[in-house]
Amino acid sequence: MDSCAVPHAARARSAWFAAGIAILTLATRAAAAEVWVVTDSHHPVLGQADRHLILDAAAVLEAELADNLPTDPERASAMVQQRLKLGGTNLQRRIGTAYQGIADAWSLGVTKVPAIVVDRRYVVYGETDVARAVARIDQYRRMQP
């Protein structure tokens, strides 16, 4: 047997295996039109989603803005205004995104974190892996007439 044939065969199997994983991933995501992760900084979730709504992001930003403020209200207000100005549009975008995430989670009726929401209709609570949550939802959908 040619010594080059074994490495080539191993590479071919590896390529087929990688392609199979990619197809499986695409098939899982194709069944779900839109996947959102709703969580906070204490409950990390693994996997790909269309949106990540981090419910304590606004509180984190507020804490950053309030960090080491003086006790004098006028000086504190001036410092916060300066921090907002220095943060520019990037900070404004982060604040808007943080509060929009809270509003969107509330409008969906999410009651616990972590939550993985599919198509704004199905939710799995407590799961920290997006692929497993989507698979559970897909299984449920197949069982429904």
Give a short synopsis of this structure.
By secondary structure, the chain is of the alpha+beta class. Helix content is about 60%, strand content about 10%.
Outline the fold blueprint.
Layout: H1 5-31, E1 35-39, E2 51-54, H2 57-66, H3 73-108, E3 115-118, E4 122-125, H4 130-143
Parallel strand pairs: 1-2
Antiparallel strand pairs: 1-3, 3-4
Helix pairs in contact: 1-4, 2-3
Outline, from the CA principal axes? elongated
Name the structural class.
Answer: alpha+beta
Q: Tally of extended strands?
A: 4
Kindly report the spatial arrangement of strands forming the biggest sheet: 2-1-3-4
How much strand content do the residues show? 5-15%
Quaternary structure type: single chain
N-to-C CA distance: 55 Å
Q: Largest beta sheet, briefly?
A: 4 strands, mixed
Q: Considering DSSP H and I runs of 4 or more, what fraction of the residues is helical?
A: 55-70%
Number of helices: 4
The radius of gyration is: 23 Å
Mean pLDDT: 85
Structure, explained:
This protein is of the alpha+beta class. The chain contains four helices and four strands. The protein has helices at residues 5-31, 57-66, 73-108, 130-143; strands spanning 35-39, 51-54, 115-118, 122-125. Strands 2-1-3-4 form a four-stranded mixed sheet, with helices on both faces. α1 crosses α4 (130-143) and α2 runs antiparallel to α3. The chain is elongated and about 65 Å long.
